[in-house]
Amino acid sequence: MTDAGMEYFTSEEVGQALEGVDVVETASEVLRLHAAGLVQTPAKAFLQWPAAEGAARTLNMPSWLGQPDGPLAGTKIINGNPANPRLGVPRAAGVILLFDPDTGHIRTMMQAARISALRTAAVTAVAVERLSAGPPRTLALIGAGALAEVHLDVLVPRLAELKQIVIHDHDPQRAEKLADHVTGAWAQRGIDCTTAPGAESAVAEADVVVTLTTTTEGYIRHGWLKEGSVLVNVSLDDPLPEVFLAADALVVDEWGLITADRRRILGKLHRAGWIAAQGEQGAPRRGEGRAVTAHLGEVAAGTRTVRTHDHDIVLVNPIGMSAQDVALAARVADRARQLGLGRTLPQ
Fold it and tell me: What pTM was computed for the model?
């Protein structure tokens, strides 16, 4: 076997190739593989250090997928700092590496920012489509950064009966800017896009709530949420513990990553004895806690029903699996090759 070098795709080339990839179907496929036990996602390697502003960090997230057409292995390395937007640079950036499944050598490298954002929004779309009580008509976004814009790009075309979008951000000008963008981009749909002065008013009438912030402190109360709504907790720390405990259903993507994570609220609640793994007998905390209802992979595969009633409130906690990034990167690489993009770097 010869060492043929490593192919590399720029951010622009990744963007071109993504136009020919169904990101939501890719996310669904990975979730179904996960439900079948064909995905390995070890704990993330995390390092944080003080920066001139804020705190910089790096995450390395390898994964393996046992796909029907051949195994796939790779990793996402994503670095960033929540203070970056104040410095005029993106909050996060990184690369995805795809490995030769036999030798383990790195065969492909590409810029990760667009893929990472799109796979996050794609998983949200799977959750919304599978877990909503009915066709969502009102969507609330908490946070108006770049990830919010990507979520709108993915969600709005798929929510045929969506009539209203409400946006809240701690920076009112940023929320207004995103609302203006949505109003212009989706004028033909007649969608009413407004901003809210606070998170409570933003979520009060929403069928779907998506949190897209950088907070590390909870603030969303269970009583704020509309009956029958779905809360997709993308940024992981926005709901208070009462939401995790009182929601009618709690859905996760990868329980092992949640229990290994020592920074986010759901892992903390598990270690404190409030949240048990799916299927655990008995209740933690002498009947005061609860167990996970389902994994999102089971929902995507159609093997698990989550809702008992239309008025149930469903909380989805997608900690994020790098397998999603690796699978999407593999499809991007295939499409980029078809388009004649990229270049080979010598080993």
Answer: 0.94
